[in-house]
Amino acid sequence: MADAEMDAFAAEKASTADLQRALQTALRKLAKAKASREELVAAVHSAAHDAALAYPHPPPIKRPSKGKPGDHWALAHLTDWQRGKVTVSYSSEIADKRVGQCVEKILRITDLQRHAYGVSSCALLLGGDMLEGTTIFPAQSWEVDASLYDQLFGCAALIERVVRTLLEDFDRVEVWEERGNHGRIGKYGEQPAQDNTDAMAYRIAREKIGANKRLVWHPIENFYNHGTIGAYTFMLIHGDEIKSFGGNVPAFGIIRKANSWASGVVEPFRDLYLGHFHTPQVLSLANGGHAYGTGTTESGNEYAREFCAATGRPHQRLHFIDPEAGRVAAIYDLWLD
């Protein structure tokens, strides 16, 4: 072999050795990098596992055993919790206790009603103003005990507990929701109506509970929500749709507006359910039905005493519905003071 060929062969061999060393170095670096990524992934999985143990999924909801299903429905109108508001006798903690007391009364009264009529289903009407908000009044920040963030998730957790408790006692639960003016973000008209913390709290609770064959949820789509229970029909509003408040409960305005809605403006309904005015009331409508006003869980409202010259006892509403006859069969005022 010529000297030139020997030199070329030696150079090629040296180059190959260099390439092999470079490849081995690259492979070692790749293995090290892969190990680092695997350690990172393992650390993330470990952290996620620890978080899952710290915040476990709620236990499955047990199906109730209440005997033979009956024809009547319980209908609970829960509204104007204004969780987050502070008065001399009200706070988020008191709101939670009063809502819990309300649910206990619903279950206890339902058990009594079951002796006369089987009651296996419940309609839950969430009427809005479930949290206080922080932008309704200029000085409102001095009258709340939680930020809007804490109010939102605290209220969603409270709604979730209510629905889960009802599912443990009723074979079927249907939820109708309505948003209130305290859930509004900013001044009236500044944001879309859907940007409302009531609606957000409902959705958080709904998604936390998840799919359940015994639960039907009717999200708010208009300024009202329309419901049907057999032959019984109702319209759910918050109440701020009735204008010209002026410090007095506008009974004539409620009747006039309800009769106009019942004339064909919305889907046919027998009864109207509303809150907002914090005053329990029953008003007769031209269609033979009634407008049922439900109170609030709050107390000690200085604004109500000064501006409205009124004060009320904490109140929510429970009805029992005869779906075959299409009417309210029994009415209970749930006093929470």
Blueprint (SSEs and pairs):
Elements: H1 3-54, E1 72-78, H2 92-113, E2 119-126, H3 148-169, E3 172-177, H4 197-209, E4 215-218, E5 225-229, E6 232-236, H5 251-265, E7 271-274, E8 281-284, E9 290-293, H6 302-307, E10 315-322, E11 327-335
Parallel strand pairs: 1-2, 2-3, 3-4, 6-7, 7-9
Antiparallel strand pairs: 1-10, 5-6, 8-9, 10-11
List low-confidence stretches: none
Main beta sheet, described?
6 strands, mixed
User: What do we call the CATH topology of the largest domain?
Assistant: Purple Acid Phosphatase, chain A, domain 2
When the domains are counted, the total is: 2
What is the class of the largest domain in the CATH system?
Answer: Alpha Beta
Question: What number is the mean pLDDT?
Answer: 85
Helix tally equals 6
Terminal CA distance:
110 Å
Looking at the overall shape, the CATH architecture of the largest domain is 4-Layer Sandwich
DSSP strand count: 11
H/E order of the elements?
HEHEHEHEEEHEEEHEE
- Helix percent reads 25-40%
Q: What is the CATH superfamily label of the largest domain?
A: Metallo-dependent phosphatases
β-strand amount: 15-25%
The whole-angstrom Rg is 30 Å
In spatial order, strands of the major sheet run 4-3-2-1-10-11
Overall geometric form: globular
Structural class: alpha/beta
Brief write-up:
This protein is α/β, with parallel strands linked by helices. Helix content is 39%, strand content 19%. Helix 2 (92-113) runs parallel beside helix 3 (148-169).
